[in-house]
Amino acid sequence: MRSSAIFVAIAAAVVSAQVPTYKSALNMTIDPNSVAQQQRAVWCQAQTNTCQVLCDNNADENDCNQATLTYDCTCASNSSAPGLQYYTQTLPTFICEQLFSNCIQTNAGNQDGQNACKTNIQKLCATQSPPTAAEISSLDQSSAPTETTSSKGVSSTHHTAATTTAPQSAASSAAQSSTSSGFAAATQGPIGTGAFAMAAAGLMAYVL
């Protein structure tokens, strides 16, 4: 019985050793020669397109090397990289998906090994599509200044906020730069009870 337990522990350790553990898709690498040249070209084209969109068409650096599968993506607005690891159609995600596929093939017939592939690799691969240019433009408009109007001495403030579909939790950070806040819609706080009390007092004075 004891020897069986030891064997299971050893087997689990072997599986764990075969499947690397990553912190995120950003630190995943792959041998470029293991990917067809045409496929690498497709990956790089998608990478530069997505970088441009995430930087709101204003990237300081935006290039992708097909030979080495390395890239540079820096937005001019904040001189930092957007959260590429949270979006599909980026080089980190392409590499993540390819590593997962390779891992599954390597562990064919090995349930424990394939489970490790899902835990250590697949869960880090992005599933959120990049925002469109129209969505980014809409989010930019949400930061427009508020308009204040007055009527009979009572002021009212109108806030303009974009209506967007909230992405899943892993990708909500995705719209953010890796070092600074990204696209955040404006929010309107609740109106205090003091304003209602003042308005009621004014109306009573007018009646009397």
TrEMBL record:
Keyword field contains Signal: yes
Record's signal peptide: 1-17
Pfam families in UniProt: DUF7707
Keyword Signal carried by entry: yes
Domain DUF7707, chain residue ranges per copy: 28-130
Polar residues: compositionally biased ranges: 138-154
InterPro entries xref list: DUF7707
Biased composition (Low complexity): 155-173
Keywords: Signal
Region (Disordered): 135-173
Transmembrane stretches, start-end: none
PANTHER family hit by this protein: ANCHORED CELL WALL PROTEIN 11, ANCHORED CELL WALL PROTEIN 11-RELATED
Name by which UniProt lists this protein: DUF7707 domain-containing protein
Native source organism of the sequence: Trichoderma harzianum CBS 226.95
UniProt lineage: Eukaryota, Fungi, Dikarya, Ascomycota, Pezizomycotina
